[in-house]
Amino acid sequence: MNPRLLFLFIGSTLLFMTCEEEGGRPAIAEPSDYTFLRAGNSTVDFTGQTTRILMAEELKASMLNFSATAGQWQEMYRNEAADGGDVSPFASAALNAATQSIRSKVAASADYFSANTAGSARIKTQFANWLDAQYAEVFPAQGQVAAPGIPGQLADGTQARYVSAQGLEYNQLVIKGLLGALMLDQMLNNYLGVAVLDAGNNRLENDNATTLAGEDYTDMEHKWDEAYGYLYGTAANPAKPNLTIGDDDSFLNEYLGRVEDDPDFKGVAGTIFAAFKLGRAAIVAGDYTLRDQQAAIIRTQLSKVVAVRAVFYLQQAKQAINNQPASYGGAFHDLSEAYGFIYSLQFTRRPDAPAPYFTGAEVEALLVDLLDDGPDGLWHVTPATLDTLSTTISAAFGFSVAEAAE
After folding, report:
1. pLDDT tens for each residue of 88-101
2. Residue 199 near residue 218 (C-beta atoms within 8 A)
């Protein structure tokens, strides 16, 4: 058979590779950065993902703005001005003009929710309910000291934490929950999935370098880049995002940076970035086996990041309770972050199966355990419960509680 000549742009370098139509393929080199060109033009585009991250950032900030309204938050979440809501909920004019929304991509992956519309609707509604509860329960009590069964504020060093009657910070549930229900689910269970990457004639069109109308990229290239955008979409240098990893947003990027800073997990950021680069190069070269191998690496490592942070915050809260039993502000803040990360475990992805490490029902059971040590939720949680939850989560991912705790 005649060899097929592949023209592979990696960074600013054009590599010529011959690939036999039958038999083995030559090794594909890992690119030095996430730069891919066709005819001198960039083929990388993830503007929609950047927009949604920025929308989520504004929503995050607004949830502690006591002059904001629940309607404004709901419109930030839905971005559906046509329904009679606030036509300009965002401070950014560009976001107000955008057609994207947060809600439309929450629990919306092809692999997990295309056949589970009821589950998707339930999760979408959960975020709307948390937004309403922040306004209806927490905001009216902002000036009073919280106590068991009573919402209000608690001191955490020089900061005030605003909690529900159960001690939960609803803003943290929304932030950490979106990290899973929006960013993680879209990455691991949608754009990196075969159902999306290989939809329709994507393989044939990618093999023939058939680009989307008016664009410089194939549909398959674009789908991979959209996954990339949910992690690196606001990076200072998107081609070399690990230069500022952890500093570019308040969601997956931030917490990948936090886990990277833990000596027990050092190197995870490099592993994920390498897999993204090599998987994208494999798409250009038409090596779909290598592409899927890299997707499995990304799924494994990002799922572990969420689990590590869940255990980290459970253990931080345990220390706060043990060391300063009368100081609930810091402990409840850690526990609210832990709650959100535990909630996000249902959007993780095993590398070898289309399933999470913890199902939605299993996550719900973990969250019930976190809140059922007494009638007022976190006010009664015990160190023993936090250890049990930590052990359950860490065992599923193959790391120790001690590794994640510091």
Report:
1. 899 999 999 999 99
2. no
